[in-house]
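Example record used in the benchmark description.
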Amino acid sequence: MNTQSQKILPSLLLGLLLFCLALRPALASVHIEELLGRMCLEEKTGQMAMITLNAVSQGDLPYNPAEPHELDRQRLRRVVVTHGAGSVFNIGSHAFSAEHWRTIIAEMQRLAMEETRLRIPLLYGLDALHGMHFVYGATIFPHQIGLAATWNPALVRRAAAITAAEARAVSVPWLFSPAAEPGRNPVHARFYESFGEDPLLAAQLTAATVTGYHGGDGSEARVASCLKHFAGYALPQSGRDRSSAELAEHSLRELCMPPFVAGIGAGAESVMLNLSDISGVPVHGDRHLVQGLLKDELGFAGVVVSDWSAVEYLHNHHHVAATLDDAVALAVNAGVDLVMVPFDHRFPDQLAALVRQGRVPEARIDDAVRRILRLKVELGLFEDGGLAPDPPPPLAPPAARSLAREAATQSLVLLKNDRNILPLVHGSRILVTGPAADSLAMLHGGWSATWQGCETDSGFAAEGQSILQALRARLGEAAVLAAAAPEEAVARAGEADVIVLCLGEETYAEIFGNLDDLTLPRPQLDLARRLAASGTPVVLVLVEGRPRTLEDITEQMTAVLLAPLPGSEGGAALAAVLTGAAEPSGRLPYTYPVGPNALMTYDHRHSEAYAFSRLYPFGHGLAYTTFAYEDLSVANARLGCSDRLDVAVTVRNSGTRAGQEVVQLYVSDHYARIAPPVKRLRALDKINLAPGESRRLHFSLSPGELAFVDRDNRRLAEAGEFTVMVGSLQADFALTEDCRN
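Model output (C-alpha cells):
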C-alpha cells in the first residue's frame, strides 16, 4: 500500500463509521416498526409486563424464595414463553454473586431469544441507589444524600460510570436510579435516596448521574437510567412513605420538575412514577401529569414505568378504580408504558381484553411497546442479550474503590469544631463508642445487600472497615480504646483525651423507616449527655440518612461531624478526616432542623422568616482551613431578556492548610406576583485552593435561570429588583422587563 493510500484509508473508514452511526437510529426505527407490525395483541401487551424475580424462582410465593437461589424453569417458561412478559426485575431476598447474576440472566435471555416466536430479548432492571448494592463484591458509594453533600457533579458522574460498568459486568442493562426529586421533608423515610432539598443541586447531580450511566472515564459500558419518582413523591405532607402530597401545580413545577428536566435533557431513558397521590389524584392515573406534562410538554420519548404494584394500588389502596380492570385501563390510558405487575403473569391477557373491549386504544399499546422496543434496541439487547463479555471485567478494581473512598471523604460535613479539636492530635488516647462505632451496616444504610440493609455486617463488604477498625488501623490499637456498652463507655471516659461518639440510625428502607418523632433515640442522647458530663471532650460523629434532631446535645459536644451514609469506604474516610489525613469538604444539602417541628427549607418565603429556625443552615460546612470572599462584581446591573447576569468573585484560602471550598451563589427576588423565597441557589462551584492561593470565579446566568413558575404554570422572570449573594458579599441588580421561557 502506498503512502497516499495509507493516509486516505483511515479517513474513509472513519467516514464509513460515522455514516453507519448516523443511519443507526433510522435503521432501528425501521426494525422496530417491522417488529411491531408482526406482533399479535398479546405479544404487545406482554412487552408491557414486568415480573419480579421471585415469580420465576424456586420457593414459596410471593416472598420466600428458596435458598440457595435457583430459577424455577417451569414458572420462567410460563411467564416468558406462554405469557410473553418483556421485562424482569428485582432480587430474591438478598444480593447475589456476580457469577450468579450472569448465570440467571443468561438463562432468561436464552429462553426469550430462542424459544419465543419473535425472539425479543428481556429487559432486566435492578435498583442501584449507591452502586450495585445487590451484587456481592461491587463498589459501594455513599447514598445519594451523601453524594449531594459532596456538591461535586464531576465526582458523581464518575461514580455513576463505575456503577454502569459493574452493572454491565453482571449483565444488567437498566438501573432504577437516580431518585431525581428533591427531598424537602426530612421526616420522609426515603429522604436519604434524594439529592437534598434544593432543585438546582438535585438537577445538576441528576444530570451527572445520567451522563455517567452512559459511560465515560475510559468505560464504554452504558446502562439505561430511570428517574424517580415522578412527581411529588418526596414531598409527603405527613412525612410518611407512600402518603399524600398537598401541592399546587405551580409549586410542583418549580420545586420538583428541574431535576426531571435536567435528567431528560441528559438522555434519561425511563421515568418511574410516584405511587402516591397529589391532592387526592394518584399519579399513576393522572393523564394530565403523565401524558400531558411528562410526555407532551417535556417531550419525554422514553419509557414510563410504574412502581411496585402501583397500578393495582389504584384499586385497593387509593380507591379511585372500582375493579382491577378499571385500574389497568386508567393507568395505561394515563400514559404508563411498562407495569411492575409484579407477580401476576395474567396481566398481558387482562390488558389485551381491555383493548378488545374498546377501553384502551390499541394505538396507546403501540406507543408503549414502541418505546420499550426502542430502549431494548438502544441497549443492544437484540445483538447479544446484553450479556457480560467473557471473561467479565472484575468488580471493585483499585481505581473504583479509590473513587468510592474519595466520594465518602467529600461527603463528610464538619458541622462544628470548637477549639479546633479536629484534626485529632497525634499521640492522643481516643475512646471510640456508640452504636455506629463498629457497624458497617449503619455506614451503608438501607438498600445494601438486602432491601432493609440489615445484613451488611456479615459479608456484604468484607473489605470495608467500621469507624473503630479504621481508626485503629490508622492510629494503632494502643491509642484507640473501645467501649461497646454505654456503662462501659461512661466508666472509661476518664481514660481518654478525646471521645469519638458515633451515633445515628439503624438501617431501614421505605415504610420501615416511617417515624413518629424525628428526634434521635433517647438512649443515644442520654449517652451523649453522660459522656459530655465526664469532662473529656466529645467529638460527635452522626451516621444518618436524614437529619435526626438532637435536642441540646450539640451545645455539649466539642465537634460534630456528619457522615450521611458514606458506604463501604466510610469508615476509612472518617478516620482520615478525624486524624487530618484528609480535609473535610462536604456541605449540607439540606437545612438541619433544630427540632422535630422546625421543618423548613432554606428557601422559605419572606412571610415565614419570623418562624424560621435551624440548627445548621443549608450549604453549611467547615474546613480545617479558612476562606475569604473578596471583590464581588456584577458586570451588567440592568438586564433585558437577551442579556446575561455576569457575576465575578475572588475566593482566597486564608488559612494554613490546603482545602476545598464550595462556592454558592444565591439570588433574592425582592418582589414577585407569587411570594418569592428569601433566596434561591442559582449557581455553584467546588474548587481546590492551596494556602494563600486565590481564584477569580465567573458565573453567568440568563434571565430564564432567575425565573419562577406563575399561577398559569409558565416560567416567568419578572421585572424588578434582585440581590445576588456569594459568601458574605452581595450586590444588587435589576431586570428591566418580564421574560418568559
